[in-house]
Amino acid sequence: MTRFSSLFLPGLIHLGSIAVVGSAWLYQFAGLLPCILCLQQRVPHYVLLAFLIPTVVMFFVGGFLPSLYALYRKVFYVVATLTMGTAVFLAAKHIGVEYGWWQGPMACGGLVEKMTSPDQLFALERPDCSKPTIIWPGLSMATWHLLAVLPLLGLSLIGLWRNLLSR
Hints:
By secondary structure, the protein is an all-alpha fold. Helix content is 65%, strand content 0%. The chain contains 5 helices and no strands. The chain has helices at residues 3-29, 36-49, 52-61, 66-98, 141-165. Helix 2 (36-49) packs antiparallel against helix 4. The protein is elongated and about 55 Å long.
């Protein structure tokens, strides 16, 4: 396996994660205020993005230190599997709150936590986590997030299986 082919799967996982977070940011910049659970769903993607630069660096260094590169790939796939598993869990949790299967956190639909003046104390409110703000076409944003991270979890599991169990 060449270094380029061994970088394809991590690159695909990174691109998928960037696409998910980027689309969330685009909706936010367009004026859609995220709820507390929406913000929680972004955290696994931020953790995975922290591995983007080391992945690129290891691609170039891997030719000189192949054992270090192999170890890094294993660590990357363990982290990617854990973070994408967490992303699936958080998306399913948000969907459950939207359908009323369980209650969301106390801060759902509550006041924004960071206030710059006392006048804003009752002025700003977060959207209610149990009420989807956009349903397109028939699916909420939390459901779309789940559909986006399930393939990323699958790719992470494939990489984990290839790097840990087959050697």
